[in-house]
Write a structure and sequence with these properties.
There is one protein chain. The protein is of the alpha+beta class. The chain has helices at about 5-10, 10-15, 45-60, 80-85, 95, 135-150, 180-185, 190-200, 230-260, 260-275, 285-300, 305-315, 320-325, 330-345, and strands at about 25-35, 70-75, 105, 110-115, 120-130, 155, 160, 175-180, 200-205, 220-225. The chain has two domains: about 5-255, Glutamine synthetase/guanido kinase, catalytic domain (Creatine Kinase, Chain A, domain 2); about 260-345, no CATH class. It contains 14 helices and ten strands. Strands 2-3-4-5-1-8-10-9 form an eight-stranded antiparallel beta sheet. It has a two-stranded antiparallel sheet with strand order 6-7. Strand 4 and strand 5 (about 120-130) form a beta hairpin. Helix 11 (about 285-300) runs antiparallel to helix 12. The relative contact order is 0.12. InterPro entries: Arg_Kinase, ATP-guanido_PTrfase, ATP-guanido_PTrfase_AS, ATP-guanido_PTrfase_cat, Gln_synth/guanido_kin_cat_dom. This is Protein-arginine kinase. It is an enzyme of class 2 (transferase).
């Protein structure tokens, strides 16, 4: 599959509708695996990484799930193309910064991605829309099992799978959910919720993982350690926490609708106006306003709005996507201008937000006439 084909076809999870997909945008399972007898990528020579890649890449390409997918070594990809893969959450920022001896294999639906020679020899992930960690696990587990039948993994009967980072030793599994939590942010409850999540040993990260900001009111929640629990136990724990956060966000949305409707409509209306009529938009500003527009669509403040259009825009406004569309490198100013232009065009079909309704907005004609004493 060509890169242009990959870009043209939206991933299943970008336009899917899984459980709680109005709040849980994606579920992801990532497995870290290494081969016995080979140095970890960070300690191996370029020659060793190339040798390992040449050995495993044909095997990956032959698997039924990955056959006819996207399969490229990094030296053949430009910096912009690799950044597009980062923006689509198909590869890590660290992996995209590498070149010789590294590759990525992605299935045609962009639901499975395998990075070769990242921090570990294999970083394989399955992605699904909504709160659907078990299906994501099934996707990646099939790849893992097929590889283990043909390759000798670095495994210890006491410790489990051996990995470059000690926090991944054990199952080698990281389960994560991407949550859209604008109401918890607007009601200033988000810090309290995320502190509670951190206290039970889970990690809270931003849009692109560790060390990144929670742009667009998007937060990643995942396990921090993989030793001492089975894969199913880890999945159940993340599912339970995600369910609690979903309920907190639902209650926060209800509170906004019933107790602060005017502020909510104002926020959504301002976001709509900015996105529809701005001529300069930074990434951060666009993500913030798209988040509020998505909230407005979820709460029917904006009617007949296709939420998948907004989800696609969250990707299309990213810097590398814009540069690939323009077919050249763009300055920050050029990106901000093109981002605004594309957003104005894509949102033409989205109707204006509804006006706030209130029991206090009754028609004056319904009031009794004033008395005038002479």
């Amino acid at each position: 599959m060509r890169f242009s084909t990959l870009l043209k076809n939206p991933a299943d999870w970008m336009q899917g509708h899984g459980p709680h997909s109005e709040i849980v945008m994606t579920s992801r399972i990532r497995l870290a695996r290494n081969l016995r007898g080979w140095s970890f990528p960070g300690w191996s020579s370029e020659k060793q990484r190339v040798e390992l890649l040449n050995q495993v890449r044909p095997l990956l390409a032959s698997l039924p799930e990955l056959k006819d997918g996207f399969n490229e070594e990094y030296p053949s990809l430009t910096k912009t193309k690799k950044q597009v893969l980062v923006e689509r959450h198909l590869v890590s920022r660290e992996h995209a910064a590498r070149s010789t001896g590294c590759a990525v294999v992605i299935d045609r639906k962009q639901s499975i991605a395998v990075m070769v020679n990242e921090e570990d020899h294999f970083r394989m992930q399955g992605i699904r829309a909504g709160l659907d960690l078990r299906t994501a696990h099934d996707l990646v587990n099939r790849i893992d099992s097929a590889l283990e039948e043909n390759l000798s993994y670095a495994f210890d009967t006491r410790l489990g799978y051996l990995t470059a980072c000690p926090t991944n030793v054990g199952t080698g599994m990281r389960a994560s959910v991407m949550l859209h939590l604008p109401a918890l942010v607007l009601t200033e409850q988000i810090k309290q919720v995320m502190n509670a999540v951190s206290k039970i040993g889970l990690a809270v990260r931003g849009l692109y993982g560790e060390g990144t900001e929670a742009l667009g009111n998007l937060f990643q929640v995942s396990n921090q350690h993989t030793l001492g629990e089975t894969e199913q136990e880890l999945i159940s724990r993340i599912e339970g926490v995600a369910e609690h956060i979903v309920q907190a966000e639902i209650h926060a949305r209800e509170k906004l609708l019933h107790e602060n409707a005017l502020m909510l409509h104002d926020q959504v209306g301002r976001a709509y106006a900015t996105l529809r009529f701005s001529h300069i938009l930074s990434s951060k500003e666009a993500l913030t306003h798209l988040s509020l527009l998505r909230l407005g669509a979820d709460l029917d403040i904006i009617t007949d709005c296709d939420r998948s259009l907004l989800d696609m825009l969250l990707l299309e406004i990213q810097p590398a996507h814009l540069q690939l569309t323009a077919k050249r490198d763009l300055s920050v100013e050029e990106r901000d201008s093109l981002r605004a232009e594309n957003t104005r065009d894509r949102l033409k079909s989205v109707p204006e937000p509804l006006n706030v309704s209130s029991d206090n907005d009754a028609d004056d004609s319904a009031l009794p006439p004033e008395s005038h004493d002479e």
